[in-house]
Design brief:
CATH topology of the largest domain: Rossmann fold
Low-confidence stretches: 1-20, 68-72
Pfam family, one: Esterase
Number of helices: 6
Order of helices and strands: EEEEEEEEEEEEEEHHEHEHEEHEH
CATH class of the largest domain: Alpha Beta
Strand content: 25-35%
CATH superfamily of the largest domain: Alpha/Beta hydrolase fold, catalytic domain
Radius of gyration: 22 Å
Strand order of the largest sheet: 12-13-15-14-16-17-18-19
Oligomer: single chain
Number of domains: 2
Number of strands: 19
GO molecular function, one term: acyltransferase activity, transferring groups other than amino-acyl groups
CATH architecture of the largest domain: 3-Layer(aba) Sandwich
Helix content: 10-25%
Organism: Flavobacterium seoulense
Protein name: Esterase
Mean pLDDT: 90
Keywords: Signal
Shape: globular
Structural class: alpha+beta
Largest sheet: 8 strands, mixed
């Protein structure tokens, strides 16, 4: 159905469940911090509820859906006076960042009031629910590093591929210094912009460095797919093409164009969700390339999988408390018993979402490249 008549003034609303929480809603709603400039909606309150407002006078149905592909469900909005559709979430949402989209009479739209973020293999609207611990990824008056786009040649895929590189504040000042490198992968349906935009990894790094909590290092983020990325096609994904891009093309390019410490002991790989799957497979396939491994909601390692313990400096495994924390904890216990330097982390009150991965990265970063 065509929507030439449609005018949307949209807020975001996202639901953590379809069941009413029974709380009295506090009317202290404020615009989400990831709204478009000057836009009042979507709004969130101090309890974690979200509120939206859509002008669609001739629409018959308006539904807001949360999560990658709307898989976590949604709610039907109510039409009121002057063509506005309004609603407030049935209960408080988990802290942190969430994707969402709006379905109007069967057509999927983004909220013009909100910024867009690449997820669900498309640009989706985003909403930020204030977190009690959000200070660690806040924009502060501290020295800031640089996130730059690079284009590197890939003979194996016959294109120029893109990556983003974070260099710490001291990189431009200490011209003779070389730095360790973390190769950090996004999840399924996302791309190389995810860790900076949704994850705020550069701000986490800047704040940790300013507090003297970590050894500065470079982060490289690239697109982890080398075949068609569509929902329902994950089973057809093959690691070998991306492994070739990473090991034979990207790493040599980074080592040639940045001041890296180009050896295995100063090189790490980590990833969230599908990026954890990539990390798990590639680090096992190429133990001479990486010495620090991290899986963020991305599976586990078993002691018997790692053939040369001497080459492995750190194994970090994390997830949200709403995922499978016992599996993570038990895996790390087994690794420790086998003599590995292994660490587990569980983000309380979160699931398979960016607040889990922001917190996980905050815990991981101080453990990397320790002398």
């Amino acid at each position: 159905m065509r929507h030439q008549y449609l005018v949307i003034i949209l807020s975001a609303i996202v639901f953590s469940s379809g069941v009413c929480s029974g709380q009295t809603i506090v009317e202290d709603f404020k615009p989400s911090t990831v709204n478009q400039p000057g836009q009042e909606y979507p709004q969130v309150n101090s309890q974690g509820y979200a509120r939206f407002k859509i002008l669609a006078p001739e629409a018959q149905s308006v539904v807001v859906s949360l999560g990658l592909g709307g898989a976590k469900g949604g709610t039907t909005l109510t039409k009121g006076e002057k063509g506005f559709w309004t609603g407030t979430t049935a209960g408080p949402m988990d802290e942190g960042f969430h994707y969402y989209h709006v379905t109007v009479d069967g057509g999927i739209f983004n909220d013009p009031g909100a910024l867009n973020f690449y997820g669900s293999t498309r640009w989706e609207s985003g909403i930020e629910i204030p977190a009690h611990d959000q200070d660690f990824y806040a924009l502060k008056n501290v020295p800031h590093g640089n996130v730059q786009q690079i284009l590197f040649p890939s003979k194996s895929t016959n294109i120029l591929r893109r990556a983003y590189v974070y260099t710490p504040p001291s990189y431009s000042k200490e011209q003779s210094k070389h730095f360790p490198v973390l190769y950090l992968q996004h999840g399924w349906g996302e791309d190389e912009t995810a860790w900076s935009n949704q994850g705020r990894v550069n701000l986490i790094m800047d704040n940790l460095i300013a507090e003297g909590k970590i050894k500065p290092f470079i982060i490289v983020m690239t697109y982890g797919m080398t075949n068609e990325a569509k929902f329902g096609t994950i089973a057809s994904f093959k690691i070998e093409p991306f492994q070739t891009v990473l090991i034979d093309e990207l790493i040599p390019y980074v080592d040639s164009n940045f001041r890296t410490i180009a050896n295995q002991s100063q090189r790490a790989m980590a990833g969230l969700s599908m990026g954890g799957m990539e990390t798990h497979t590639i680090t096992l396939n190429k133990p001479h390339i990486f010495s620090h491994f991290a899986l963020l909601s991305g599976g586990i390692y078993k002691p018997e999988e790692i053939k040369d313990k001497s080459k492995t400096k750190l194994i970090f495994i994390s997830c949200g408390s709403k995922e499978n924390p016992d599996r993570v904890k038990n895996a790390v216990t087994s690794l420790k018993e086998a003599g590995f330097n292994a660490v587990s982390y569980v983000s309380e009150g979160t699931g398979h979402e960016f607040q889990t991965w922001r917190r996980s990265f905050k815990e991981l970063a101080p453990l990397l490249f320790k002398d």
